[in-house]
Amino acid sequence: MVVHERQPQTQQMFRDETFYGTTVDVDGKVFERCVFDKCMLRFSGAALPVFRGCRFVATDWQFVEAAATVLAFLSAMGHDFGDSGTALLKDLFWRITQQRLELTDAPKLIAEANIRTTNAESGIVSRHPNSGSTTLQQP
Prior knowledge:
Elements: E1 12-15, E2 18-20, E3 23-25, E4 29-32, E5 35-37, E6 40-43, E7 50-52, E8 55-57, E9 60-63, H1 65-80, H2 82-98, H3 105-113, E10 116-119, E11 123-128, E12 133-137
Parallel strand pairs: 1-4, 2-5, 3-6, 4-7, 5-8, 6-9
Antiparallel strand pairs: 10-11, 11-12
């Protein structure tokens, strides 16, 4: 399974290694034909890891720092932005599971969603399709 092909800037390479019962910081590292058995893989979002031909057995993920912030934001969208936020997330995750996405695809996906939602607690979030900008106004 290849998670991402883009080569990270910091390229620490692991080949044909088995990681067992340990926490592995994966940011910016390349893993080829590795086995992760009962591990915790920690991703901060600083640099994309590369996994080629790896196996994951009873292994969990921990998202910290920037990666955790993005997940918290996505969760807030699903809970606080009403039906349009939920629809955006469903569309985003459908696209992620159906096609390979690169870093440059994210702005395009959001622009295509063209969301406009109102929530008394969150304010108004407007997507402006022609300018490519997003506006958040507090009530």
